[in-house]
Structures are given as C-alpha cells and as structure tokens.
Amino acid sequence: MLLQIKNLHASIHGKEILRGVDLEVNKGEVHAIMGPNGTGKSTLASVIAGREVFDVTAGEILYQGKDLQKLSIEDRAREGIFLGFQYPVEIPGVSITNFMRTAVNEVRKFKGLDPLPGGEFLRLMEEKKRLVEITSNLTNRSVNEGFSGGEKKKNEIFQMAMLEPMLAILDETDSGLDIDALRIVANGVNKLRRPDNAFVIITHYQRLLDYIIPDFVHVLFEGKIVKSGGKELALELEEKGYDWIKKEQE
Amino acid sequence: MQPENKEIITAERFISLFEKNRAFLETFDTKALVKIREDAMASFTRLGFPDTTMETWRLTDLEESFNRGYDYHLQPFEDVDAQKVFRCNIPHLDTAVIGQLNGWYVSKDVPLMELGNGIIMGSLADARKKYPQLIEKYFGTMADDAGEGFTALNTAYTQDGVFIYVPDNVKSPKPVQLINVIHHDQNLFLQSRNLIVVGANARLSLVHCDDSYNHQASFSNIVTEIHVGEHGVMDHYKLQNLNNNSTLISSVYFRMEASASLESHYISLNGGLLRNNIRVLFNGPHGTANIYGIYLMDRRQHVDNQVFVDHAHSGCTSNETFKGILDENARAIFNGHVLVRRNATKTDARQSNKNILLTDTARVNSKPFLEIYNDDVKCSHGSTTGQLDPESMFYLRQRGIGEETARMLLMFAFADEIVTKIAIPQLRQRIEDMVKKRLQGELQICEQCVLHCSTPEHPMEFQIDMSKI
C-alpha cells in the first residue's frame, strides 16, 4: 500500500477542518476526491504535503509504511510525494531551469545519485515540456511570474513530470482552465500513469474526470469521507449536485 | 614625515595637523586650490564631524569607530608589496585597471596614462601638476564642503586619488576598474579624492571597488566628484567588500548636465560601518539617473545609504531602487530625499526600498522622502520590510529543495532584481557569484572584485555552480 490515512484530524488556528479521514491508495490507482467547497479537500492535500500551518491533532498518515508526520516537507517530496498547487506561487528572480535543476538534483542526492549533468538535464527538460505542450522557452523565465492561469497549471504538471513522483496529489488543477488547457493537463497526467505510481485528484467538478478516468471516487464532506465508489459516482454527483450528500448526512 | 600615531579621531586633531602641515599639503597647489583648501578647512572647523544630533546622522553613531584610534599618513608608505596585494600584475593602460592602496594611487610605471583618444586616467596628485587648468575647472565644484564635515575635511587634505578625464565625444572603449585596497598592519585613517570628468556626448563605465586585505581596523573618508557633460553617459558601479572592523564614509557627488544619463549601482557585500552619501544634481534639463542598491549585512554590520537627488531643472527622471537582506544584528538605514524645485516641471521621480529581515534583532530604518515644489510632476515612493515569503518557501520545499537551499534561492532572487541591472555581462556574473557566496557565508573579505587580471595562481573564472544555490 502506498498511502494509508487513518482517522486523520487536522486543524488550523484551533479550528478543526479534517474530522476523521480514512483513505487507502495503492500503486497504480487514480483516486478522485470530490466535494463541496470548504469541506477540507485542499486541507487534506496540504496536510499530506506537510504544510506547517496545519496541526494534526489525531490519526496518522502512513506512506510506504512510514509515518509521514516525522518527515519534513522536503523529505516527503524527496520520498516521492508531489503536490500540484491550486494557486502556484510566483517567485520572481528564480528561473524555472534553476528551480528544477536544484529540485531534481536535491531529490537525486537524497536517493544517493550524482547530479544530472547539464546537457542531460536540459534534454530532460525539453522532453517533459513536450509532454505538456509547453512551447515557450522557459529558460529565462521566473517561476510562474506573469504566467496565465493555464500556463501555471501546465507548469505544475511539467514539474511533476520532471520529478516523477510516486504519489501525486493534484489540488484543483482543473480550476480556471479552458477546455484546451484541461485536455493538455489531463493528457500529461495520463502519460505519466504507471503501475508503480498513484494519483489523488482533487476536484470540485466532474469535468476533469472525463479525461482522467479514476479508479475510485470519494466524497469529502465536513472533514470526512462520507461516500466512496467507482467512476460512476462522479457522474451521479454531476447529475444530482452535492445536496443529496448533505441530506444523507443529516 | 612621521605618521600620526594611533590617536582617536577628533576634529581638533585634524585642525591642528592641518596647521602644522599646511605648507606641505600646498606643495603643488595652484592659487585657486590653496583657496579651496583654506575655505574647506574653515568649513570643517565650523562643522566638525557629524554626530547623532544631526538629522541625517541620527541613526549612524560614529563614536565607536572614532575611538578605535588610527594612524594617518600624509605620504604614501611602502610597507607592502602592491603586486602581492593586488594578486596579479596591474596591467597597463590597455586593460584600464587602476589601483589604489590605502588611498594612494599605485603606479607601476606610469602615474598618469594618456590614451590616444584623449582619455586621461591616473593619479590625481600627478594630474594636479600636469593639468592644473583642467583640475581647476572641475575640482571642488561638486563637493559640498560647506554642508558636510567629512567632505570639507577631505577637500582640505586633498593629496592623491584618481583622476579620469574622458573628452567630449569620446566613448571609453572598456570599463575602467578602480580598485581601492586597504592593507596595513596598524589601524589606519585614510582619505582619497577622486575626480571623474565625462565630457559632452562622452561615455564611461567605471567599476569602483573598496576592498580590505586583512582584518585590521580602518576608517576611510573618500570623496568622488563626477561630472557628466551634455548627453554624456555614465555607468557607475560601487562595490564594497570590506572587513568588519572597517568604517567607510563614501561621498559621491554627481553633476548631470542637460540630457546626461547615469546608472549607478551600489553593491555592499561586507563592511563594519558603511555610509554612502550619494548626491545627484540635475544641472540641466532632460537628465536621467537610475540609482540601484543592494546590501547584504549580518553580525553587527551597519549600512547607511543617503541618497539626495536635486531636480533643479525640468524634464529629468530619477529612480532609486534599494534592496537589502539583514541577518543577525545588522542594521540598515535608507534615506532617500528627492527635491523637486519650483521650475522643475515634468519631473519623474521614483523611490523604492525593500528589505528582508532574517532575524528579530536585525533592524531597518527606511525613509523615502519627496520634497516637491511643483505640480507638474510624477513622483512615487514606497518601502517594504518583511520576512521571506512562507508560501514561496513551502512551494520550493514541496519540490524537494531543502529549507536552507530554499532560503538561499529566495534571498538570491530578491537580490537579483538589482544584480540583473548590471550592464557589463562579466561583471554581472562576477557579482552574482559574490552575492551567492555572501549569502552562503563563503565570501572572503579579501576576495577582490578584480575583473581584468588573470594569472596562473589566481585564474579569473566566473563560473557559478547552479547546483549549489
């Protein structure tokens, strides 16, 4: 099992957001987490990635059998956890090339590998750019600076492709995307699917799931997973909205 | 002549020393220069050294620096091998490197170089003998002897320094690098005086470095006057990498004639107490001045940038962008003063100062200030002080970048806005490298900003190890 979340409770500034989440993800699987706004979807992603502003008050997260809470943000990333941000941060002055070279080489160092030689690194960048149909020259551009919404999300998938994570959590990667960008992002994800990795896709709408077919769909509501099913659950949610979930819970 | 012994710095010391050595100081003076000296000494006697009761010195207390006690020499002293200090042959005029040791011009063969195109560069002491009329025309016409005690003292004691003259319509083919190294086995007070004249339609790039060679305390009072003629272009770089026991009072006076343009970069990498007085006078319409600064300070280091831009004519544009990163107990002061006079219509003036404080004990006092006596102007000012952005930190670390490296990347990115403005590619790379080393705590104080010389023992390479930042 790649990821096992047991009875996870998490809060921010004393306010409880996650109230007992249970989730199991195996290699080769794609899970979709859906739910109304403000029910804790992004919090779940942030807590797995180790964002320090959240306090885990109960429960545990096991990743490849290891207790994630004992690992720093960067060590979680180096162990293969990737978070695709809902709002990627603009970092003026840090070039994408330098950022990715630093990231790739720090991950390699963690795994006991030598840094990637410059030429090889640049070839890798070109290859992964093609995967997400990035045609512009990124070399001299700062991370996300002045990027459109679509470019930022493509850049997230590009980074994911560069780092080849075991577990990728994509937090509302579809939000703010037009249909072309959505297709490109989804294609990128599909090409990166392998029997030995897994994806957790957080989305508010069903539309991304037309392109990335999930194995499991979960509904997160008021800090708990209240319903799980196959891909047909997403269609049901699309049809009926979230109200029937709310009613069921009452 | 014996050096003055290690005494503390007081106005009285310099007033009486002046009286005792007046004849000696005046040896090569023209009548006009004697008068300038005399007036300057009268100003100094009236002004004395500044103290914290004065508004522009309120936050920079020199008492500790003054009380260390310093030798002061009225003649060059050859106790060190200049060749060794500069770590490479000081090349001849074609490479355009000028060396100063302890404030004295270092001449290998020629104290004053005359290039075929009319450019003169070399020792101010020699220029005073050889070109008295040229010196008289410009010397002392920009420096504010009447208002600044340090400047008045410097003028009164003028002996040596660097003189650069670029005639009208001449573009200096290479950047000139002026390296001022301090190296002495005793605490040293030193003064040097530089005069730079860029003619009408002329162009000069000047890289001016202040470097230490050891950890001995020093107190430098350096005054530089820079005249930029009509449509002249001046590209100016000031690099400061001094030891933690050094005090540097650097005053640069720019006079910009009509349509002249200036880019000035202040890069403060290290130093005990650094004070930059930067004064720009628009002496004609349609001038441009961009003044950039970056300071990276830690321990108990203190940096004080005082920028005064005098928009005395219409249609001039000025822009000040200063950024700083302060660690441990460092202290920074930014005081930007833009004066827009009544007749200076169509003025465009901007000021910005941004700081990152890495500790609770680092401090910044930032005061961008506009004084405007005209309605037809575009002016803006802003100041921010904060920590490294936690969102950016999380983003970088989520990609596997360690906390320390992520901090380094963000700090370098912050500084980079200023570094990228450097127009000379090799210099930009060299400074990028120095900034990275500085942020990583690896910059040596004797690491000089030498650009041009390369020897087998000290090869000049500007490679940056990308994997390390």
Description:
The complex is a heterodimer of chains A (250) and B (469). Chain A has 8 helices and 12 strands. Chain A has 250 residues and is of the alpha/beta class. Chain A has a single domain (3-249), classed as P-loop containing nucleotide triphosphate hydrolases (Rossmann fold), CATH 3.40.50. In chain A, the strands form 3 sheets. Chain A has a 6-stranded mixed β-sheet with strand order 6-9-10-3-11-12, sandwiched between helices. In chain A, α4 (118-131) packs across α5. The mean pLDDT of chain A is 93. Chain B is α/β, with parallel strands linked by helices. In chain B, the strands form 2 sheets. In chain B, strands 1, 2, 5, 6, 7, 9, 11, 13, 15, 17, 19 and 21 form a 12-stranded mixed β-sheet that branches. Chain B has a 10-stranded mixed β-sheet with strand order 4-3-8-10-12-14-16-18-20-22, covered by helices on one side. Chain B has one domain (4-387). In chain B, α2 (31-47) packs antiparallel against α7, α8 packs across α9 (403-419) and α9 packs antiparallel against α10. In chain B, a hairpin with a 5-residue loop joins β5 (112-114) and β6. Chain B is built from 10 helices and 22 strands. Residues 88-95 and 450-469 of chain B have low confidence and may be disordered. The interface between A and B is medium-sized, with 33 and 26 residues.
Spatial order of strands in the largest sheet of chain A: 6-9-10-3-11-12
State the oligomer. Answer: heterodimer
Shape of chain A: globular
Which stretches of chain A of 5+ consecutive residues score pLDDT under 50? none
Mean of all residue-level pLDDT scores of chain A: 93
Largest sheet of chain A: 6 strands, mixed
C-alpha geometry of chain B: globular
Q: What structural class results from the helix and strand content of chain B?
A: alpha/beta
Q: Could you tell me how far the N terminus lies from the C terminus of chain B, measured between alpha carbons in angstroms? A: 51 Å
Topology pattern of chain A, helix = H, strand = E: EEEHEEHEEHHEHEHEEEHH
Helix count from the secondary structure assignment of chain A: 8
Percent of residues in helices of chain B: 10-25%
